Amino acid sequence: MKNFILFILLLAMAAACTPNKDPQKIIDKAIAAHAGQLFEGRKVSFDFRDKHYAVQRKPEGVIYLRLFEDDSLGRVKDVLLNSTELTRYVNDTLVELTDEWKFKYANSVNSVLYFFQLPYGLNDPAVNKKYLGQKVINEQLYEKIRITFKQEDGGKDYEDVFVYWINAKTSTLDFLAYSYLTDGGGVRFRQAINRRKIGGMIFQDYINFRPIDDKADVESLDEMFISASLIELSMIVNENIEVE
Length: 244
Prior knowledge:
- The protein has one domain: outer membrane lipoprotein receptor (LolB), chain A (Clam).
- It has four helices and 14 strands.
- It has helices at 2-17, 23-33, 99-117, 221-226; strands at residues 43-48, 51-58, 61-70, 74-81, 85-90, 93-95, 127-137, 140-149, 161-167, 173-180, 186-198, 201-210, 231-236, 239-243.
- The strands form two sheets. Strands 6-5-4-3-2-1-14 form a seven-stranded antiparallel sheet, covered by helices on one side. Strands 7-8-9-10-11-12-13 form a seven-stranded antiparallel sheet.
- The longest helix is centred in the middle third of the chain and has 19 residues, at 99-117.
- Mean pLDDT is 90; it is low at 3-17.
């Protein structure tokens, strides 16, 4: 009986030594640190990989734009309303699209704008937050948050899983990882770089990494980054950012 009581006390002490913080408060601080709330009511535009993007949040909904020149088509403009309703114009003429192509184009636009606005968007109604504890990376302490999505309002990629590392001192989003199922699935890890302030808001680019095994646990990618066992894939660079 004494051994059982001692065991319970040890468990309680261990639990007391492990911080159990509210992930909502951590995300709120991260959004404030990046001034993400300023996305409301403003139009923000930028260039990414030869395409021009814009986002504008209004009381009636969120409008995403993507504009680019296609050698065979001409001027292409994709308009995405509330992340679901996509229309395409080619040389200012509305184009009829199948549901399959609407989904593909919408998914492509959504992906770019989602990462560009981070950490803003992590308070959307479909988001589930879970605190995973603390982690030291590059001699900095981080709060580790897992994000999943409800099936309702979570989009067709609701099964994707994200992990965010929020700097415990500055509340900035310095690292993120995600697992996805489309195109065979996989996992990625991103390190924030080139952080700058434009129009009172914080924007940043990323180095994009992948593990050797695309089936790796997304929550373990911080350890792989620390041990330098990730493969650098690409640079995520947003240029010519303007805030109106």
